[in-house]
Amino acid sequence: MLSLVSIFLVGLGFSLGVGTQQSESHPSLSWQNCSAKGSCQSVSGSIVLDSNWRWLHDSGTTNCYDGNEWSTDLCPDASTCDKNCYIEGADYSGTYGITSSGAQLKLGFVTKGSYSTNIGSRVYLLRDESHYQLFKLKNHEFTFTVDDSQLPCGLNGALYFVEMAEDGGAKPGAQYGMGYCDAQCPHDMKFITGEANVKDWKPQETDENAGNGHYGACCTEMDIWEANSQATAYTPHICSKTGIYRCEGTECGDNDANQRYNGVCDKDGCDFNSYRLGNKTFWGPGLTVDSNKAMIVVTQFTTSNNQDSGELSEIRRIYVQGGKTIQNSDTNVQGITTTNKITQAFCDETKVTFGDTNDFKAKGGFSGLSKSLESGAVLVLSLWDDHSVNMLWLDSTYPTDSAGKPGADRGPCAITSGDPKDVESQSPNASVTFSDIKFGPIDSTY
Ligand SMILES: *[C@@H]1O[C@H](CO)[C@@H](O)[C@H](O)[C@H]1NC(C)=O
Ligand SMILES: *[C@@H]1O[C@H](CO)[C@@H](O)[C@H](O)[C@H]1NC(C)=O
Ligand SMILES: *[C@@H]1O[C@H](CO)[C@@H](O)[C@H](O)[C@H]1NC(C)=O
């Protein structure tokens, strides 16, 4: 029986093996599943590191992938690569700077291990050893505590949901963090739907650890939290395809091919960033919501009929800090009807007022997102720096020559900030700490 199974998998060519140099032991992370206010049950989950960060080698210890290039001997094409290569377990704290304790997870920025220097990480919440935890967000709220005080301009401590497959889609599955996708249709994934992305692989000029392959990994993405100590945004992005979709050519919507709005995903999203929306004193160091200190972040996914099956109508934000409940800031921009939540109408107005393409609506908008959320989404926690545009879209003026224009000012960081080589050398000890994740019906978790 066992051998039949492995023959079958080899036959498909999707047979990336598991190495034995380092056993895979998932750091535990507990969270609370609430049914009503004051009534929550602890769930013992764990986290898993994305496959892209892991050591890939042959049956010995020769690298299949080194720096930002595939081995031409071991990986001349996808199926040879899949046959030759093995993926390793992770030393979470030693190599990747990831530590957890109880209900708290810390992601460190630069970690100098014995063999390599690691930059940032991306992890997923697991339900068990081989399945991601799925969350069905409609008519529910998702709550966590975050400490962004150790994140300078240019970094992004992110917590978000993507429509990945529950089992990771292909061997060796969720246990090794397989199957990532998001609304940027990233080309830097080493494996997509189980197949090595070696075709047309080009090392990224500005990133010694990453490259881009022929295919991209697309799926709907709900950014609950993208932030550093200076700026924050929450942003739905919708794709016209269900689940993970391996794109090729125009449908990837590549920026450098000038096809950003021709792909299957809405790359811009519909963001709510208080600073960008006219309140520069609401969120930040020493401000109404003080990013020098930990805060509780509540995000509610309201439906039109207050049922799980209803149409998604609003995405709301509430903060709790120092025992005080603080409603999200109101927009303060001429042309945008005053609101403190994301709705389809808010998205439509901001796109017009800011002169942005309404790709969010074009790719499905709220009704598309509503459908996507019914399948359940995987929780992602990550810390990253930005080799394309230095995170200026989050925390500075972007486009950089548009200061003062509607929608251009997103945060107080300088347009010269956020260059990865600067932040990596100047702030290696940066980190983000997420804790006390709670999920439940509206108003049950805070
Ligand atoms: C969370 O609680 C709900 C009932 O409120 C239950 O249906 C669901 O299975 C629970 N989820 C987990 C992961 O424990
Ligand atoms: C920013 O938000 C705070 C808290 O909601 C409010 O008191 C203040 O008036 C707002 N400022 C602007 C410019 O809207
Ligand atoms: C980072 O932390 C290490 C270990 O605690 C310390 O030796 C080093 O000086 C710190 N680096 C910076 C730039 O703060």
From TrEMBL:
A UniProt-annotated Pfam family: Glyco_hydro_7
Keywords in alphabetical order: Carbohydrate metabolism, Cellulose degradation, Glycosidase, Hydrolase, Polysaccharide degradation, Signal
UniProt cross-references to InterPro entries, sorted A to Z: ConA-like_dom_sf, Glyco_hydro_7, Glyco_hydro_7_sf
Catalytically driven reaction(s): Hydrolysis of (1->4)-beta-D-glucosidic linkages in cellulose and cellotetraose, releasing cellobiose from the non-reducing ends of the chains
Statement: the UniProt record of this protein carries the keyword Signal: yes
GO biological process: cellulose catabolic process
A GO molecular function held by the record: cellulose 1,4-beta-cellobiosidase activity
Keyword Nucleus: no
EC number in record: 3.2.1.91
Region (Disordered): 400-430
Segment forming the signal sequence: 1-17
Family per record: Belongs to the glycosyl hydrolase 7 (cellulase C) family.
Name under which the protein is recorded: cellulose 1,4-beta-cellobiosidase (non-reducing end)
Record organism: uncultured symbiotic protist of Hodotermopsis sjoestedti
